[in-house]
Design brief:
With about 425 residues, the chain is an all-alpha fold. It has one domain (about 5-424). The chain has helices at about 5-25, 35-50, 55-80, 105, 110-125, 125-140, 145-155, 165, 175-190, 190-200, 210-230, 255-290, 300-315, 320-335, 340-350, 355-365, 370-385, 390-415. α14 (about 320-335) packs antiparallel against α15 and α17 packs across α18. The chain is globular. It starts with a helix and ends in a 7-residue tail after the last helix. The relative contact order is 0.15.
Length: about 425
């Protein structure tokens, strides 16, 4: 197992992100040294547990197979409704025998299926106990209150709007620091419904894509906790023990499926709407930028500008400089557009134009909801749940964007700092 300066460089990125959070801290004298060590240890420990233990690759392969099975099931349902547009038999002679990949008919139906399945697994207590397990881990290793620990754990599998519903009875009791922490971890992680969609998008260009996406969402939570606590330290001790009788409930399995489908519709509509709008905006901006002088003989585009701006960041977290521009473009698209578009663009890069290691690092770097559009979605959802704290939510939301973004970068840097042999 070899280790190189390229791995060590990523450790500098971790230190830099922690330094930036401290410089933006509301109380620089209350730096959480023990939490810093604990969060880094939890992140590294989870990566090692998920990749280095015997037969871990078989487990990840099993996760990928399960995701592929769910995707196949979603395709069957979508094909019944949309026919060949969702990959079914084509009614006419096509140039290629391959089924067409139309995002709206292949990915959005998958969100509905996973959303309903997640609700059903929660009702059956399977997802509930998994969430409680991670909540217990965060509560004991990072000194979180029971309610905020459970909300953070729920963020790993649910959405940044759905997870507060799990602790709805405790929302008015959260401190300002706990509210900010819930926002940051919500932006640093992704929902199970979209997680599977990302894995499907990357499946053809990244081995065990589903496993990497799942691990990314899990280990970004401790990074989000750390950066949030550095920026707004908790002034009091951890909150009271959480009453699990107050959490999200469904009346029956059918109620879980019904409400899961309804929630999935909202997610799918939001995803489709934001992608339509932001792709349109990119097209408009690129047409205006076409009037600018060319750079290296190529027209100026928003994606190229993102590449130049974020190339140093991509290099710092582990991408080689020869691939830093392409990787920087992906980071910029993720932050200013949406992570969905970033995953689509990452999946569209040919295998011979980006190494598998860089593609893996970028998968971790963009696997989070931290983008401009998500801030609006998050504030809208939280103000509905906590109307009495609207002004506080609005004041914290934009502040949460940077640590949410840095949390996924920090996760990518920690993965890049570990020997590449672990992931083979």
């Amino acid at each position: 197992m070899t280790y190189s300066l390229e791995n060590a460089r990523s450790l500098l990125a971790v230190a830099l992100f922690i330094l930036i959070a401290w410089l933006l801290s509301e109380d620089k004298r209350r730096f959480p040294f023990l939490l810093t060590l604990g969060a880094l240890a939890v992140q590294a420990g989870l990566v090692l547990a998920l990749f280095a233990i015997p037969n871990s690759q078989a487990v990840l392969s099993g996760v990928t197979a399960a995701i592929n099975g769910l995707a196949g099931a979603a395709d069957k349902g979508a094909q019944f409704v949309f026919g060949f547009l969702s990959g079914g038999d084509q009614p006419y002679l096509a140039e290629s025998d391959a089924a067409p990949f139309i995002f709206g008919f292949r990915v959005l139906p998958l969100i509905l299926v996973i959303s309903a399945l997640s609700a059903l697994l929660w009702h059956w207590r399977i997802l509930k106990w998994i969430t409680r397990g991670f909540g217990f881990l965060f509560e004991k290793t990072m000194n979180l209150g029971g309610a905020s620990a459970l909300a953070v754990a729920a963020n790993i599998f649910m959405g940044m709007v759905e997870s507060p519903i799990v602790i709805r009875a405790y929302l008015d009791k959260l401190s300002r620091s706990e509210l900010f922490l819930m926002m940051v971890t919500g932006l640093a992680t992704v929902a199970g419904s979209t997680m599977v969609a990302y894995a499907v998008i990357l499946g053809s260009v990244l081995e065990n894509a589903a496993g990497h996406v799942l691990v990314a969402s899990i280990i970004s939570a401790p990074a989000g906790i750390l950066l949030a606590r550095i920026m707004i330290p908790e002034q009091h001790k951890a909150g009271a023990a959480y009453d699990y009788g107050a959490e999200l409930k469904y009346e029956s399995s059918m109620d879980a499926i019904t409400r899961g489908v309804q929630d999935g519709i909202m997610v799918a509509v939001n995803v489709a709407a934001f992608i339509i709008v932001f792709v349109a905006f990119v097209w408009l901006v690129n047409n205006m930028l076409a009037l600018a002088p060319r750079i290296d003989g190529e027209p100026v585009t928003l994606q190229r500008l993102f590449g130049y701006i974020f190339a140093p960041v991509a290099w710092l977290i582990g991408a080689p400089w020869s691939e830093a521009h392409a990787a920087g473009n992906i980071l910029g698209v993720k932050l200013f557009l949406t992570e969905f578009i970033a995953f689509i663009e990452l999946g569209a890069i040919p295998a011979d134009e980006m190494s598998e290691r860089t593609r893996m690092i970028m998968t971790y770097a963009i696997c989070g909801f931290a983008n401009v559009a998500s801030v609006g979605i998050m504030t809208g959802g939280m103000t509905v749940l906590m109307p009495q704290r609207r002004s506080e939510i609005m004041s914290l939301a934009w502040k949460a964007l940077l640590p949410g973004f840095m949390a996924t970068l920090m996760t990518a840097a920690i993965v890049a700092a570990l020997p590449a042999a672990l992931f083979q």
